[in-house]
Every structure is written in C-alpha cells, then in structure tokens.
C-alpha cells in the first residue's frame, strides 16, 4: 500500500486525476478539458479510454496501480449521472481495463467537497460554512454546522455547461430561459434555506467556493497577467463587490469576457453562465454586506482521499486490536487457564473486529 492516494474524477467539464499525500496536499494534478467529454448527452467513449490509459501511466510514477481500490478511486459526477450511455460505457471500462467507475450522487459530491474544506487547516475555525462547488453539470451546495460538526443540508442546482447548452438550444428565447432559471434557482434555494433553518447559521459563516468565475475575478483583481488557480487559492473578496462584478460578467457577450482578460476564448461562454448562477445564488442567500467569499482549489477528490486515509487508520487500529486480543488469548492458553467463557469471549471479539475490517 503506497503512502499517497489517488482520485480520478470524471466531471462534466473536466476529467482529472489528483495524487494526494497524507497531509491532504495535492502533489500531482492533471486534467483533460474537451468537448469530446460529452457529445449530445453521451459520454465520449474513445476519449474516456484514452484518458484512463494516460492517468494509469501517470499513477505508475507514484507506485500507484489504477486497479487497486485501496489506493485509487474513480468517481463520476453529473455528466455521468445525466449521460445517456453511462451504464454501457462503465460496463465496457470494467470489462476491458478492469476498473470500476463509481457514479456518486449530487449529495455525496457536496459532502465530499465539504469534508475537504473542513480538513483544510486554513478553514479550521468555529464558523459555519456555506460551500459551493460549481461544475459544468451541477452546482452543489453544502451547509456545515460548526456546533454540530456535520453537514446539515445539501442542494444541487444547474451547472454552467448545462445552462449554456439550454441557451444554445433556445437562442431566440434566451431572456425567457434566463428568467425561468432565475426563478428555479430562487425557488430551490429558498426551500433549502427553510428546510435547514439557514438564518440560525448565517451569523457566523464562512463562504467557500471553487467556482471558476470567482477565481478568475480574483486573478484579474490581483493584476495577474495569466490565470493560475494556485495563485488565488485562499484569497477572499467581499460578497457585495463580487456580486457587482458577477452581474456585469453575466450580461457580457463571451467575446467581451475574453477581450477583457477574464478567460480564454473557449472558456468565456461558461464564465458568463457561471457568473449568472453564482450571482443569483449569492442574491437569494442574502448574505451580510460585509461577508467575504473565499476561493479554494479543494474539491470532492480531496474529500474522498481523506476518507481513504481515515479508513486505513481505522483498519490499522483494528489489526492492532486483533493482535492484542490474540496475545491475550495465547497467554491464557499457555498458562492453562480453564476460563472457557473468557476465552470464548476473546475469540468472539477477534471475529467481530475482523468482520468490521472486511466491510
């Protein structure tokens, strides 16, 4: 078993691999972003095989085997949840390469991102957390309670790519589509706020996101000539200032987004739709005017890696417990102990611990 863990994540926009060390730091990252990921609501099968083979070669450099589920996990999100041929493609991958792709729910995706943020040393305080994970297929939100030390609610909204596809299909009715989505976002978020009792958590709140639009705004604000996500990781911006910029971006033509240096030409359309979604999200949550929003490079893959490390620790503790119980049982046997009831209880404990390890 290697020291590092790896998570391969197939999203709607990007297919990526990350190698994470026990401290939760990403020591290697690579992604593929292409329209070949999904074509007409179908997973790009040939492109997927090519990506997996490439990721497998990269992991070998870290002594990680893509087929070893102890050290490597492969997950898929909204694109695969929505993809018409997902089940067929996953079956072929398992047959030809011997690996399993796990399609996780939007709730699970939000919870994994929350785990990554909570484990982040920069975020270890006594504040509640509103965590927004925006992708191409979905925007997943989690509310974490510092007092209860758990995620108290999750919500899944439309993602930037899927909104863009809706607009492309209804060019003549663009304003109607946006108005409809605005109403949908408001309805869904208001319902979520009521269900979780959001006002009780809003007083002491950290807002954290990995939204590309926010990161690009921070990068431009800092005067960076080139957008490098790691340079804005952990940076903050006032929510009111952010909303004004998002409002402007959401009304721009993609060409103007590109010309003003917010993104590359290909990414510009999704910067527009992503800005619209995040702007509406902030508006409905009605945050305090002094509330700051923090950018983070963390995501579901770091949260899942953390689970893998914790599972290893638990398994080691249980193995140590079995060893201790066996030594106890051996000592009783060698001493000629006639306490059959005590010996039987020790054996039952060993069997119980072994059963928990195998789960």
How does this structure look, described?
There is one protein chain. The chain has 359 residues and is α/β, with parallel strands linked by helices. It folds into two domains: 5-104, ATPase, nucleotide binding domain (Nucleotidyltransferase, domain 5, 2-Layer Sandwich); 107-300, Exopolyphosphatase. Domain 2 (Nucleotidyltransferase, domain 5, 2-Layer Sandwich), CATH 3.30.420.150. It is 52% helix and 19% strand. The protein has 14 helices and 13 strands. It has helices at 45-60, 78-82, 86-96, 106-119, 160-169, 174-196, 199-202, 212-221, 229-232, 239-250, 254-259, 268-285, 300-334, 340-358, and strands at 5-10, 14-20, 26-33, 38-39, 42-43, 72-76, 102-103, 128-134, 138-145, 150-158, 205-209, 236-238, 292-295. The protein has a six-stranded mixed sheet, sandwiched between helices. The two termini are 18 Å apart. The mean pLDDT is 87.
In short:
The protein is of the alpha/beta class and 359 residues long.
Q: Count of DSSP helices?
A: 14
Q: Oligomeric status of the shown chains?
A: single chain
Whole-Å distance between the termini?
Answer: 18 Å
SS class: alpha/beta
What is the radius of gyration?
24 Å
Largest sheet properties: 6 strands, mixed
Q: What's the number of structural domains?
A: 2
Helix percent reads 40-55%
Secondary-structure map with pairings?
Layout: E1 5-10, E2 14-20, E3 26-33, E4 38-39, E5 42-43, H1 45-60, E6 72-76, H2 78-82, H3 86-96, E7 102-103, H4 106-119, E8 128-134, E9 138-145, E10 150-158, H5 160-169, H6 174-196, H7 199-202, E11 205-209, H8 212-221, H9 229-232, E12 236-238, H10 239-250, H11 254-259, H12 268-285, E13 292-295, H13 300-334, H14 340-358
Parallel strand pairs: 1-6, 6-7, 8-11, 11-13
Antiparallel strand pairs: 1-2, 2-3, 4-5, 8-9, 9-10, 12-13
């Amino acid at each position: 078993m290697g020291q590092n863990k790896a998570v391969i994540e197939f999203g709607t926009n990007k297919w990526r691999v990350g190698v994470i060390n026990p401290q939760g730091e990403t020591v290697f990252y690579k992604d593929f972003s292409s329209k070949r990921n999904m074509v007409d609501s179908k997973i790009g099968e040939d492109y997927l095989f090519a990506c997996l083979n490439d990721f497998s070669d990269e992991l070998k450099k870290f002594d990680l085997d893509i087929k070893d589920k102890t050290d490597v996990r492969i997950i898929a999100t909204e694109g695969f949840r929505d993809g018409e041929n997902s089940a067929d493609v996953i079956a072929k991958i398992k047959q030809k390469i011997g690996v399993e792709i796990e399609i996780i729910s939007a709730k699970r995706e939000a919870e994994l991102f929350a785990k990554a943020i909570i484990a982040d040393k920069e975020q270890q305080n006594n504040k509640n957390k509103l965590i927004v994970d925006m992708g191409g297929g979905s925007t997943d939100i989690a509310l974490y309670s510092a007092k209860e030390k758990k995620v108290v609610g999750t919500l899944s909204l439309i993602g930037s790519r899927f909104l863009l596809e809706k607009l492309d299909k209804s060019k003549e009715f663009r304003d109607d589509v946006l108005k409809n989505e605005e109403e949908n976002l408001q309805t869904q978020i208001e319902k979520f706020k009521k269900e979780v009792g959001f006002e009780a958590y809003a007083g002491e709140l950290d807002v954290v996101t990995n939204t590309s639009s926010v990161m690009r705004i921070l990068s431009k604000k800092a005067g960076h000539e080139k957008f490098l996500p790691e340079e804005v990781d952990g940076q903050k911006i006032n929510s009111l200032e952010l909303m004004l910029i998002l409002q402007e971006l959401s009304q721009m033509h993609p060409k103007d987004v590109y010309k003003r240096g917010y993104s590359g030409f290909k990414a510009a359309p999704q910067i527009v739709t992503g800005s619209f979604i995040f702007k509406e999200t902030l508006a409905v949550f009605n945050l305090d005017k002094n509330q700051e929003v923090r950018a983070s490079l963390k995501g579901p893959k770091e949260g899942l890696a953390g689970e893998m490390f914790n599972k290893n620790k638990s398994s080691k503790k249980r193995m140590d417990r079995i060893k201790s119980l066996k030594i106890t049982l051996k000592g009783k046997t060698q001493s000629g102990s006639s306490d059959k009831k005590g010996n039987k209880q020790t054996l039952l404990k060993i069997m119980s611990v072994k059963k928990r390890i195998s789960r």
